[in-house]
Design a protein that fits this description.
The protein is α+β, with helices and mostly antiparallel strands and 230 residues long. The chain contains six helices and five strands, in the order αααβββααββα. 29% of the residues are buried.
Length: 230
């Protein structure tokens, strides 16, 4: 790929845009600053998706990296229909790379989240569908799949990497609360994440390597979850 269309890093203007949006979260302000959004957020995001997708394909051959809004790029507009918070725009950048044959948010994948003061990287499934949840619970207590799950979690959690997805207060009916994997039955999604201040690499092409190293560390959990999203 020609160097002039490769990802060169996000800029301070990108972070400033989200800071300003947080203080002026209204349609009129956004419309008057749409050029900054397209220049400093959308354009480098599309390049990031393309280049990051190439790297992720090395470890996840079926990865989907589609640099369109509502594909790998999350919409900046918030869904306010069922929220008390009626501010119209998200004040962060969200990017999603997924693998599997289901719809994009039903698949396991890798998530990139950038806001003015932090970077969050994650892998997994945010929320299981009903059929996935049923299958997940059976796998949790299965002699083979349950052991593979704990092996994957042991491989990825620690040194800043945290497990997420716990939701329920009680073990679901029909399952042994004394099972060695019972705590994982409280989850309605499963993922691993790591959060940090904005790294120096964010403003350089080196962000691709920075993210890839962390996504590769999360790979065992993603691979285990692929069985639920086939």
């Amino acid at each position: 790929m020609p160097e002039d269309i490769r990802f060169q890093g996000f800029t301070k203007e990108c972070l400033t845009f989200f800071l300003d949006l947080e203080m002026n979260n209204e349609t009129a302000w956004f419309n008057s600053h749409r050029t900054e959004y397209e220049t400093y957020v959308l354009e480098p995001s599309r390049r990031f998706v393309t280049d990051m997708g190439e790297r992720l394909a090395e470890i996840a051959p079926g990865i989907v990296a589609d640099p369109r809004v509502n594909r790998s790029l999350f919409r900046i507009n918030r869904d306010t229909r069922f929220s008390r918070d009626k501010t119209p725009y998200k004040t962060h950048l969200g990017i999603w790379f997924w693998e599997g044959s289901l719809s994009r948010m039903e698949c396991s994948g890798f998530y990139f989240h950038l806001e003015p003061e932090r970077l969050l990287l994650a892998a997994g499934v945010y929320q299981f569908t009903k059929s996935q949840l049923d299958k997940y619970r059976e796998y949790v207590v299965h002699s083979k799949h349950g052991k593979a799950l704990t092996d994957a979690i042991d491989a990825v959690v620690g040194n800043g990497y945290e497990l997420g997805g716990e939701h329920y207060k009680r073990i679901p009916r029909g399952y042994d609360p004394n099972h060695k994997n019972a705590r994982f039955l409280l989850y309605n999604g499963l993922g691993v994440m790591i959060e940090s201040e904005i790294p120096d690499e964010c403003m350089t092409p080196g962000l691709i390597d920075y993210c890839f190293e962390r996504f590769e560390h999360m790979l065992p959990l993603h691979q285990w979850l692929l069985n639920l999203t086939e």
